[in-house]
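Go through this:
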Amino acid sequence: MTGYQVLSYWDILAASVFLILNAVFSISLNLGLTRSLIVSALRMTVQLLLVGLILKAIFFAGSLLWTLLAAAVMVAFAGREVWARQNRRLKGLWGPGLGTAAMLIAGGLITLYGLAGPIRPDPVWSPQYALPLFGMVLGNTMTGVSLGLDTLHTALAKGRREVEAQLLLGRTRWEATRPAARQALRSGFTPIINSMAATGVVSLPGMMTGQILSGVDPQQAVKYQLLIMFLLGGSTGLGVLGATFCSLWRLTDTRHRLRLDRLSGETT
């Protein structure tokens, strides 16, 4: 195989037939999912078409400024998603700010490491490499951070009496909240661990599949996929660890008290 098949919009429409069939089944079974299916599919289509046009313009410009601006927009939307997925959130700017900062630091660090180290494009910030890599890293880190923070806040709110009892017995804030922290870290790490465990046996990742379909040697595609998965795992881990412990620091104080008044939602 020497190249990839150029797809037409009719090909894309044909691929949506079974999604439409699912919507029909939803109507016939009265599942109430038809609207969600259709709206999600239309939203995805519009978003991807717009992103394709924007990326084409950014790639053509080859500007560091535009590349950084696009990355900033991606981080802002990811931060909003992390904040929205939490049932209980930190109050004030800490709510959206903590998750956003954790993703920015972890995702930015790992992306720069990947670009400056193994990938080495010229220039190193080349948008054709930087934005797709940063997008994959950011997406996986977002999932881990959102799950970790939501699990942590829920665990602290539900286990408030247990944590405060440990504090009264003389435990430090870190010792008293350790069970909740472990639960949050396990929750945040689980998606990337499952993804790595299934890759190659249960599923062929999208990037690897795309490279093979475009004619890249499968062994080379495997090397790139391994590189990406290691970067994704590293970024997710750093993001989850940073977000979890920063949130614990915010929800306790130097007098080793639990400060759930800094958390929105029911905490009793």
Remarks:
- The mean pLDDT is 90.
